[in-house]
From TrEMBL, chains A, B, C:
<keyword id="KW-0472">Membrane</keyword>
<dbReference type="GO" id="GO:0005741">
    <property type="term" value="C:mitochondrial outer membrane"/>
</dbReference>
<keyword id="KW-0808">Transferase</keyword>
<protein>
    <recommendedName>
        <fullName>Microsomal glutathione S-transferase 1</fullName>
        <ecNumber>2.5.1.18</ecNumber>
    </recommendedName>
</protein>
<dbReference type="InterPro" id="IPR040162">
    <property type="entry name" value="MGST1-like"/>
</dbReference>
<keyword id="KW-0256">Endoplasmic reticulum</keyword>
<dbReference type="InterPro" id="IPR023352">
    <property type="entry name" value="MAPEG-like_dom_sf"/>
</dbReference>
<comment type="function">
    <text>Conjugation of reduced glutathione to a wide number of exogenous and endogenous hydrophobic electrophiles.</text>
</comment>
<feature type="transmembrane region" description="Helical">
    <location>
        <begin position="18"/>
        <end position="38"/>
    </location>
</feature>
<feature type="transmembrane region" description="Helical">
    <location>
        <begin position="130"/>
        <end position="151"/>
    </location>
</feature>
<keyword id="KW-1000">Mitochondrion outer membrane</keyword>
<comment type="subunit">
    <text>Homotrimer; The trimer binds only one molecule of glutathione.</text>
</comment>
<keyword id="KW-0007">Acetylation</keyword>
<feature type="transmembrane region" description="Helical">
    <location>
        <begin position="103"/>
        <end position="123"/>
    </location>
</feature>
<keyword id="KW-0496">Mitochondrion</keyword>
<dbReference type="GO" id="GO:0005789">
    <property type="term" value="C:endoplasmic reticulum membrane"/>
</dbReference>
<dbReference type="InterPro" id="IPR001129">
    <property type="entry name" value="Membr-assoc_MAPEG"/>
</dbReference>
Length: 152, 152, 152
């Protein structure tokens, strides 16, 4: 299993796992917009004049509930997006299936937990820190692996 | 047309369409930096002391025109980037060419409209909401498809 | 060398270079979270109540050192992420190896310099502007190339 023909086929369990978790994590990320919208309507916090539901409302940028969801969303962009790109290239380096699939699982589950404890039900630290570091650690490992594989 | 050799070739009309719209949307996204820069110079709103054009100016973070373009740019990151990754994997699931090409077109056109009505000429709602939901809906559909395809 | 089998193999020097710089730039981007964390602890600036280290502290959003690193991080999302996607598709268009490898190098080095002069040791302009435009210029060129290649 050394050619891209096998590596990028859904018969390759590593690629299959990568595609599955990419689907899950992209759906999770896009759901952050729904969560933001829900908080905006609930707290009547809108960032644009054309979004105001009533002429009595004014634009507002400092609602803590809205800003919390926005911080969680931005954290997704900072961490999930790099994983999605690195995970694809890591799959192309023909890694051990056991290791690769568990790395993808770790990132997937950790980032779902991160969202839950950050933006859905706030759980005291170190819940968020731990979920952040599991996903970041796995992504750093994969990024380092592809860099080293390509360097020599 | 089941192997990656055909799927990721420019002779595959689905991949061709994906590459075209990726080029268009990345150029559009990078243009947001130009728009932000134009608004910064026009309103003399700079975020860093080393950017100030004159010693009389101070850093400023609340100009509504600058912040509007920055919100549109962030919205691109939240929506275009996930599409770019999901679109590539969706292409690899060998979808119906007619459906796939029209999904890519829908995302591409909707995100251009989103920028126009948000950051170029402000159009009252629901213009922005509609363009947002067309692109998000198509991306959710593709993400769901790749997740399900990889799950079974 | 026209098939994806050769193009996405590490025996293709263009793909090898792309994978190497992707690893480097993703590690660099993830390091921005470390830099942000360091500035947060140093200046005791935390954005969430559950992150406060002592009951005397309050959430704070306007520390200039924290915000500077966060702006640099966001600028990475706006510029490195589009490059990572466009670079992969550009590799698939079978470009001149000399040109492609030097474009990847230019983006990689320019974005490292951008971080250094923006968020590590602040260097007066036009240091940051120059590093920004080198990377953005190379990415625009590649995005334009893939768009045109796919359009005809």
């Amino acid at each position: 299993m050394a050619s891209v023909v096998e590596l990028l086929s859904l018969t390759n369990p590593v690629f299959k796992s990568y595609v599955f978790w990419t689907g899950v994590l992209v759906l999770k990320m896009l759901f952050m917009s729904v969560l933001t919208g829900m908080q905006r309507f609930k707290t009547k916090t809108f960032a644009n004049p054309e979004d105001l539901l009533s002429p009595k409302l004014k634009v507002k940028f400092d609602d803590p509930n809205v800003e919390r969801v926005r911080r969680a969303h931005r954290n997704d962009l900072e961490n999930i997006v790099p994983f999605l790109i690195v995970g694809l290239l890591y799959t192309l380096t023909n890694p051990s299936a056991f290791l690769a699939i568990n790395l993808f699982r770790a990132v997937g589950i950790a980032r779902i937990v991160h969202t839950l404890v950050y933006a859905v039900v706030v759980i005291p630290q170190p819940a968020r820190a731990l979920s952040f570091f599991v996903a970041a650690g796995a992504t750093v490992y994969m990024a380092f692996q592809i860099m080293v594989t390509a360097a020599f």
